[in-house]
Amino acid sequence: MQLEGADGALDSWARFCALSDELFGGAGDLSAGPRLAPAVADLCARGLAELLRDHFLRSLEEIFRSNAVKKFWQQFHPYCSSSPVERINFCVQDNWPEDVLSRALEDICLEKSYQEKCVLALVHSFQSYEDRTPNRKSKALDCSSSLMPRYQLMVSSVLLTTLPLSFPEILNVYFKKKLEELSTMMAGSDGSDPFGNHDVFERSTTSDWHSEMDIDGQEPVISECRTLVKNIGKVVRDLRYLGFTSMTEDAYSSAIIWLLKSKVHELAGDDYRVPVLGSVKKWIQAVPLKFLHALLTYLGDSVDNESGSGLKSPLASRPSSFPGIGVPSEALVRWHMRLEYFAYETLQDLRIGKLFEIIVDYPESSPAIEDLKHCLEYTGQHSKLVDSFISSLRYRLLTAGASTNDILHQYVSTIKALRTIDPTGVFLEAVGEPIRDYLRCRKDTIKCIVTMLTDGSGGNTNVTGNAGDNLLEELNRDAENQENVDYDDHTNIDEKQAWLNAESWEPDPVEADPLKGSRNRRKIDILGLIVSIIGSKDQLVNEYRVMLAEKLLNKSGFDIDSDIRTLELLKIHFGESSMQKCEIMLNDLIDSKRTNSNIKTSLSKTSQTEGTVQEETDLSHDVLDATIISSNFWPPIQTEDLTVPASVDQLLSDYAKRFHQIKTPRKLLWKKNLGTVKLELQFEDRSMQFTVAPVHAAIIMQFQEKPSWTSKTLATAIGVHVDSLNRRISFWTSKGVLTESVGPDHEDHIFTVVDSTSDFNKNSTVNQICERFEMTEEGESSIASVEEQLRKEMTVYEMFCIAEPSYDKSLQQLQSFLSGLVSDEKLDMRDGSYLLRK
């Protein structure tokens, strides 16, 4: 009986194998399928259901591997085996890889579809056996239910284990080319912006994009778009069918992101005066989202939020309505959020990379700053901005080649721009610290700060506001605007408002410095940040006093309205007591104007009363305007001996006498080297006008006596050193008024007046010397600088260092001595400094 049973099993197995081979090689003929049932039933009754299943799947795997899979990968072998350069040639072909991919997918999908029918034939045989033996427990039911999933797993495993490394790259190329083609179609055949052609998809309802869409529409553009999406959908469906679901989604996702980034780069460009973020968001809804909506609908993955079941993402709980789409599915909402994040991040990276140029162009570039602000609010990647911008500053700005003035203006623009991005000032603290540290090491920082604050427009053409306004006026308006915002005025508010403020409180970002309180960040004081570079407002006030003195002494008139306005603004920020000496200096100019008017009127009346006749060589009193200063309140003035022409000296003497008569007992002490002189020089064929320093005027006026002078003789005549004369007279040689020639003594040059332009012939050597002397002349100052004043003050302490016996006390002994003077109330100690007690 056992032998007969074994023979029966062998017969059934042989019959099953023969029918299976007939089924596999039937080339579409499935007639052998129903004949499997008896053999399957007999073998299942003998407990061989799992053996049947495994043998059947192994046979299918061998056939699928040797036929379909091998042929499928051979389609892509030319690309996979080519060099990188040759692959570029493949990519530029119009229909590659579309034709190859579509044909290969169609062939292998047909093979798989036929094998699935073969699997279903075996499943039916298992189910037929189960139906005949419902009360009998067997493994046939388990085999029938697991047969198709095992087959699908087998297909995916075979394909993935034989996958060429270049196949994902081929998919990326395919989706990139198709999406680029779709974007071009939507932009219109004339290459116009896609936002102007939104109706490409809006004229179609959602059902128009279903897998059964009619591509024979009346409008060619819409029809082409539908056909293109349908073809893409077929490829995606076939790839999913083969088990490449994850790889396919990665491929078209990366293609969409690539297209998005390309669009952001195209729209952003290097024009920072136009906002970009809004256009990018519109393009996302106009192209990628509509494509994804059409693709998901074609694939049957588009499910409305209302009709879905189970738990949904809170991100998609309240989807908005998109143009041309309506209420999107949860998958589309997720895609929308994902694309917007990539758009924000891409635009953010672009703007951060060009932040240095953007701040240089600020405030014209404020739209780019606003875009960056919104991007950072969405991504939260503020630290990337700080690190990148500090790196740019150190490489491009904080270098020896950059002028201090440019660094300061960039710092001010940085403050304004970053205040827009981060009103709390947290990131400004981090970005500004390297700039402040670098500026503290520059000797001209204080002077540049004062110039920037007080000169019209601060030397910066990008400053907003009225023409001629200085940066200080702009900062004053800026402070008033911030006060109107009222960041942290919590002193005069009621209890209800206090609770509202408490509820709206937000902690500082994690990048904030914990050593600096958040209340200090509520209001960004630009002037305070600039002064903090110096470390003390006294240094800035002293530098301003020196520069104001220099400016007032070089004025040719008494127009000081702008200086008074600047002083009033400085008094608001630094206090009246700090600016008292500067105020006295300006009052000296006002008094000088009044005194000049009184003296000129008095001298004129005296001349008329006495009937004095003015000679041709005499100068009128009307040509003299004297600036009378209170020397105790002005910075130390650099004096230089100068002998002026007799006519000028007489004019100064008459003026001083009349001043003494009016202002008894006060007397004038002339600083003849200071001031300005307006001259008109008349020659045979021309006349020339100049505004020069008194020493230049004294030089040229000597040539009224005789047309030629040697340098030594002329230096003696005007009372200056020969080297100083040679430096100053180069001004007149450079203007073509005098010519220079070598005298008998090679160190004693001869200077001659040029009566006619035809007599003037300058050589290159003289030109170079003149240029050098002019630069030296511009660097001279009539007021001692702050450094020179400090050096003079330190000479007192120098005596203690070089005196006999030498100073040999330790630092502790000196500190103890000074502390004793404080205890005796002879000194005061304030902020680490010892001051005389008042």
UniProtKB/TrEMBL annotation:
Belongs to the cullin family. This is Anaphase-promoting complex subunit 2. PANTHER family: ANAPHASE-PROMOTING COMPLEX SUBUNIT 2. It comes from the Eukaryota. Keywords: Cell cycle, Cell division, Mitosis, Ubl conjugation pathway. One of its GO terms (molecular function) is ubiquitin protein ligase binding. Pfam families: ANAPC2, Cullin_AB, TPR_ANAPC2. One of its GO terms (cellular component) is anaphase-promoting complex. InterPro entries: ANAPC2, ANAPC2_C, Cullin-like_AB, Cullin_homology, Cullin_homology_sf, TPR_ANAPC2, WH-like_DNA-bd_sf. One of its GO terms (biological process) is metaphase/anaphase transition of mitotic cell cycle. Residues 529-733 form the Cullin family profile domain.
